């Protein structure tokens, strides 16, 4: 782990809180589109595309949090072609003095969004499975709630650690 400086930990905590706020906007947007899709089934394909983009953005935002933490506290990102998955897995494991960022159950839930992001990035939107998109969209609030709670716990650790380091 890199040398911990209180200022860097406080800035990291602020970055994570801001990222969580941005993710909350995405989740609310997904919920709005689900309502529209239910009200207008004739345009389901349009809503499916919108949901897919929002779901992809959601996971990308989660991964951005993990990347910043890995850069600041772990000394960098995993290498190799499977680095996205390894980054997610590492987030659910304590590393040296750093506690786990998210619970294993949260990582398991996020893995579905990681896999879906891969599909979205590598498929035509008209090939997306609308039922799968809607399933992920409906489970997003629960997944985000778990992610958000885990991040709040991690941010509290960052702030406590910064305060302890400032006292020395």
Descriptive tags:
single chain, 168 residues, mainly alpha, Four Helix Bundle (Hemerythrin (Met), subunit A), 77% helix
Describe this structure in words.
This protein is mainly α. The protein has one domain: Up-down Bundle (Four Helix Bundle (Hemerythrin (Met), subunit A)), CATH 1.20.120. Helix content is 77%, strand content 0%. It has helices at residues 6-39, 44-74, 83-91, 104-122, 130-166. Helix 2 (44-74) crosses helix 4.
Rough outline? elongated
Number of helices: 5
Number of strand elements: 0
Structural class: mainly alpha
Predict the CATH topology. Four Helix Bundle (Hemerythrin (Met), subunit A)
Oligomer: single chain
Total domains: 1
Order of helices and strands: HHHHH
CATH class: Mainly Alpha
Supply the CATH architecture: Up-down Bundle
Mean pLDDT, all residues: 94
Low-pLDDT residue intervals, each spanning 5 or more residues: none
Helix content: over 70%
